[in-house]
Amino acid sequence: MLTILFDGIAYGMILFVLAVGLSVTLGLMNVVNLAHGAFAMAGGYVGVVLVNRLGVPYLAALPLAAVAAALIGVVLERTLYVHVYGKSHLDQVLFTIGLVFMASSAVSWALGSQQVFIELPGFLRQRFEVFGVSMGAYRLLVIGVCGALAVGLQVLLSRTRFGSRLRAAVDDPVVARGLGIEVGRIFLLTFALGSGLAGLGGALGAEILGLDPNFPLKFMVYFLIVVTVGGASSIFGPFLAALLLGVADVAGKYYLPAAGAFVIYSVMLVVLILRPQGLFAPRSGR
Amino acid sequence: MIRRSFMAALLAVPFVASAQAQQTVKIGLIVPMTGQSQSTGKQIDAAVRLYLQQHGDTVAGKKIEVVLRDDGGVADTTKRVAQELIVRDKVSVLAGFGLTPLAMATAPLAAQAKVPMVVMAAATSIITAQNPFIVRTSQVLPQPAAAMAQWAVENGIKSAVTLVTDYGPGIDAETWFAKRMKEGGAEVLASLRMPLASPDFAPFLQRAADAKPQAMFVFVPSGQGAAVARQFAERGLDKSGIRLIATGDVTDDDQLNGMGDVMLGVVNAGHYSAAHDSAVNKAFVGAFKAANPGMRPNFMAVAGYDGMHAIYQALVKTKGDTDGAALVEAMKGLSWESPRGPMMIDPQTRDVVHNLYIRKVERVDSELYNVEFATIPMMKDPAKP
Amino acid sequence: MRAAAQAALADLGRWRWPEVAFWVAAWGSWLLLPEQHLLLNEVAILGLFALSLDLVLGFAGIISLGHAAFFGCGAYVAGILARLGWGDPVLGLLAAGLVAMGLGFVTSFLVLRGSDLTRLMVTLSVSLVLFEVANRMAWLTGGADGLQGMVVGPVLGWFAFDIFGSVAYAYSLVVLFGLFLVARRVMHSPFGLSVRAVKGNALRTAAIGIPVNGRLVAIYTMAAGYAGVAGGLLAQTTQFVSLDVIAFHRSADVMLTLVLGGVGYLYGGLIGALVFKWAQSWLSDLTPEYWQFWIGLVFVALVVIGRERVFGWPAAVLRRIAR
Amino acid sequence: MTAVLETIGLERRFGGLIATSNVALRLERGARHALIGPNGAGKTTLVNLLTGVLAPSAGRILLDGVDITTLRQDRRVRRGLVRTFQINQLFGDFTPLTTVGLAVSRRLGLDTQVWRRLGSRKAVVDGCVEVLERFGLLDVMNTKVATLPYGRQRLLEIATAIACGPRVLLLDEPAAGVPEAEREGILAGVAALPADVTVLLIEHDMDLVFRFAQRISVLVNGAILTEGTPSEIAADHRVRAVYLGSDHG
Known about the structure:
heterotetramer; A: 286 residues; mainly alpha; ABC transporter involved in vitamin B12 uptake, BtuC; 72% helix; 3% strand; D: 249 residues; alpha/beta; Rossmann fold; 2 domains; 9 helices; 11 strands; 35% helix; globular
């Protein structure tokens, strides 16, 4: 059924934009940022305030949400994250979970705990019939935006100076510094990029996922699935993993509603056992 | 047996001394204030505080003190917190209980301690049967499910699909909707159950739609309704001739405004609407909104409010006696006019008896409301004999 | 020199006064803090659970975000036995531990390979799959509504669980202390040293003739048993089991608890459990809605300022006084 | 005399690359054998094949005439085939005493003991003291390994291998990175090995090789170029040619 496939792709695309920032911080900067979902939540709530309360047009609010999340990312990176780059993964877990707790409470205090949505404009609520497949305008927008982002990111990381500098900075910060690369700034920009993408994903995906203070914890597992199954070192891997997850989740629920989430977790387990480095990671050298 | 009770007595000695001579009646309010169900806790807490504010903290010569505790929606925490409230804070009444397992975990404890348990949220039918100290002021899921089915049959709906969350209340709803549909000669084409944590409802809705029913009956816990309804509309199902009918949980007053125009026209069955047309309710909604800017009372709030009312009235009847059995006895058969309309505590089952309203979502003064248009008066829990 | 070496080796497992003081305080708390027994019972159970994770994470270096699988397994075993009329707590606990060990043994083969992240996700997936299994098998587990109708007998046929949690806490503390002694003993044995060696350097461990995978399987199985017993304790002392026992937040909590207290020295889990539960209980009494904010702030501050500097100053003060 | 360690047609390919090609080595009991070769000749690959870190693509490895080709790493160690690493592989959190103590416990078959303390056996204590003494590590036996100076760590690397009770010892560049002043300690420790222990020295440092070895094999491009006594090797023009291009020309 093509409508299910279409829905699954849209869902997967959302997961991709939400998780790709995590893949970057984890794979490239080696920081276990479990607070990644908090940036998505921040972007989502910025969207809610802008669209629902201030009347900003939906399409204008999306980039603003991304920028806001990126700015929050910048501030937190400079003030807090810099202190944990050198710490153990376990300390990073404690630190980022702490941030999640704080973010959840702060949102609940400031904006209430009921689930909210961003009002969609009328033109995004339409549906089309294309070759007998019924598609919603909103989900088409999601696919379009996310697809473009995936391509853009791949180009950014593989074809630009920023990308090569980032890879150099990650491979060996000492050598990179010797080459005159400002490692701190590269990390800052990367972090901001990842947070901004999460913020955009949060605003864009609010319609499907809903927003509430528990958002970062609720979706943490999904983000981790995307990153581990996709392999945390490329753009393409998490992209395919997110699509696979989205389609499998939607199709699993459609065709085997009784099995629930069972399918997803079992598939992930098998993938991780067979390919511990991730399904789409390049096979290691040797 | 003797040696066991001896041991228990020995262990109990240090704690007995301070348990007497209370001029204060403590009520332990345990609700989820954090985690997935936090909106439930916040509604109940706000309503309980409102009740105290409106009715004073003194009744039958006793000072009332509400001790609020968060359980995060985790059953063993609920039980431990309840136990601490009984043992350490010496509460006379336990109240709250956001979800079925939370109430179930605490039930044996309340029976052992002979402390009344006023259930303000959990809605599975079996809860009140767990022990004779449980009184419920929220609702029982079979009520709206049966009411909805009754209305559907009367309004010519011959086929439906049920779509419920896969846990106790959901299965209650599914069972009683299907039962009443069949009794009315209508057909349930498929019964779909969704996992409790389900981010994307699209595939379930699609599957339900593919069965081509005349109506889709939905139950999801308070807080998830918006996502389902929006995706129902997003899939264009509202225009495809399938009617969305639901329990009042889906069109939760707290969230209804945020769900947007897609909800307009959804028919549902529930016991409380913020738009219920009565003086009592207008006063309640007005005071609630004034005390809690940005919130609108929903069925959780009214259950908390009524729960406090039941406790107050029972204390009046017992003249301040806080003995658990006496309080429960006093609550049995209580009836009053609640913001939801007339309600009563069933003297046999200690469960709630109230009007069930068939409502339709409409825009009233720029806000969305459940507007009542039909009433099934004083419905008991259909699942209890 | 030989004597010095012998003394140094003998010193490895010697009881030091802070340890003795810790356990004296633990037992003293039963007598002196009767009002806190319920909370302390939860502390003891979480402490045992975190000790179990410490065996895996702190000693063998396997990072696990799905440890609740074994906790939940033990809880359900103890709970289901009690429901079927096998209400003897000690036997129930034994069964809980053994079944969890079986599960640990079977799943240990999945965590032998891979990076931290892979292991994190493998353990997480195992627990999520088991969560779904427990949810599906509602006829046995009660599903999302929880397991009802447990009848737990008195401990050793003598001490019935009371409403004050006194028997429960004493029972949990005895079990915790006993299992702690075993863990302590094992971790100071050559076997325990070899497990630490695997974490320190697996390549070298194999090069001195120790089977790395065998050690990991053994310690993972043992830790699973510990977690199972902890779960069994929770089921028996609360006389209720719900899906929460196996949920993701349970795994995350125990990880936070352990990391809070520090990994790899057996006491981290116990201290973390005490601090975490106490702070949670204290803060959530003060501010039931927003306590998480303050807990979060503690976590963040602890990492940013540095655990050594936060926990280090009392030790430094003590040292100064002693001098 | 029978061979203690023998390889027959040993081969290892990585994709299309042949890292080890048809290597036949034969070590007699008590031999002092050196394996030399320029960088990239495949010396470390060969050690990894011998010790079971890597599986060969073809060929067999015999220890005391028993085929150990498919045996696990730790099993080979238990049979007496022990190695040191070119780059220190130590337990940073341990002390030299516990490191050696663990190895000695393993040798005595006590490593699966879960109940008795490490130091509760006299034999373990004696074994530790003996090895630590031989490598002059007694004075730092209770110092955390990670804080030891590099030369001491290097000694511990070898001491740990000795503590395993080897019958065949593979020394992978034992003097690598060790300052001149500390080198003597390492050489002395190696020289003091019991005569019945067979030693295969993989080394870059020609001084060390020629002082130590009775026989030398030269590995070039993964294959054995030649084998002989030190004087034969020194005179071999092919070996000279190979090394001319490198630092020992």
